[in-house]
């Protein structure tokens, strides 16, 4: 009987040990996310910019408010573009998606995140000064309603989805055209109020 029980006990102990290790690993991942949300700082994960020869492009990432108070992101600046806006993407009356400047900025509650992603909220670079090529690093400074700032660097990546095209009839709304190949240029904005 001892011979039969020992392998069974060893198997049971091995299974318990494996489950404990798996639980620790998953707890570790959860703690990493929780740590970012309670770090006492503003942080960003996976920041990147879509490559562009000229005209417009956008920046993305997940902005985490690790402070104990709500913050409101009101502006973004980068030397890569002379004109930048915070954009939101919403369904329009025709059933499509349109993007426009987010009036008043984005509020991020304490411990919460703001996801900036293609086809969603993003930082729009309206007038790219020089080509942004894959592998380039683009510096950004974000400004919050209390005049505090946060700086980060984003990697430039090629991305063919969610290409933006300007629809002048929507008075500065941007149409999301997932299949379009031409990108709008800064010249298309001439004469429009921003």
Characterization of this structure:
The chain is an alpha+beta fold. It folds into 2 domains: 1-35; 42-189, Immunoglobulin-like (Sandwich). Helices cover 19% and strands 37% of the residues. The chain is built from 1 helix and 12 strands, in the order H-E-E-E-E-E-E-E-E-E-E-E-E. Strands 1, 2, 3, 4, 5, 6, 7, 8, 9, 10, 11 and 12 form a 12-stranded mixed beta sheet that branches. A hairpin with a 4-residue loop joins strand 9 (137-144) and strand 10 (149-157). The longest helix has 36 residues, at 2-37. It starts with a helix and ends in an 18-residue tail after the last strand. The relative contact order is 0.19.
Hey, roughly how much beta strand do the residues contain?
Answer: 35-45%
Mean pLDDT: 75
Query: What's the shape?
Result: globular
Q: What portion of residues is helical?
A: 10-25%
- Please trace the helix and strand order, writing H or E for each element: HEEEEEEEEEEEE
The quaternary state of the protein chains shown equals single chain
Whole-number tally of structural domains: 2
CATH class of the largest domain: Mainly Beta
Strand elements, count: 12
Number of helices: 1
The CATH homologous superfamily of the largest domain is called PCu(A)C copper chaperone
Structural category: alpha+beta
Radius of gyration: 23 Å
Distance between the termini: 83 Å
Largest sheet: 12 strands, mixed
pLDDT < 50 runs, ≥5 residues = 1-33, 164-194
CATH structural fold name of the largest domain: Immunoglobulin-like
CATH architecture group name of the largest domain: Sandwich
InterPro entries: LpqE-like, Lxx211020-like, PCuAC_sf
Keywords: Signal
Signal peptide: 1-25
Protein name: Copper chaperone PCu(A)C
């Amino acid at each position: 009987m001892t011979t039969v029980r020992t392998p069974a006990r060893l198997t049971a102990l091995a299974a318990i040990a494996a489950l404990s290790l798996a639980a620790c690993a998953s707890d570790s991942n959860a703690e990493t996310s929780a740590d970012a949300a309670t770090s006492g700082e503003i942080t960003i994960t996976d920041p990147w910019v879509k490559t562009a020869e000229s005209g417009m492009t956008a920046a993305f990432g997940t902005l985490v408010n690790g402070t104990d108070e709500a913050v409101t992101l009101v502006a973004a600046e980068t030397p890569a573009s002379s004109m930048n806006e915070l954009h939101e993407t919403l369904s329009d009356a025709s059933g499509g998606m349109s993007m426009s400047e987010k009036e008043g900025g984005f509020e991020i509650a304490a411990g919460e995140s703001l996801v900036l992603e293609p086809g969603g909220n993003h930082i729009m670079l309206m007038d790219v000064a020089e080509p942004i090529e894959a592998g380039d690093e683009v510096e950004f400074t974000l400004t919050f309603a209390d005049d505090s700032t946060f700086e980060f660097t984003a990697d430039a990546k090629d991305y063919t989805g969610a290409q933006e095209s300007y629809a002048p009839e929507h008075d500065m709304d941007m149409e999301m055209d997932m299949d379009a190949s031409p990108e709008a240029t800064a010249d298309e904005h001439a004469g429009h109020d921003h």
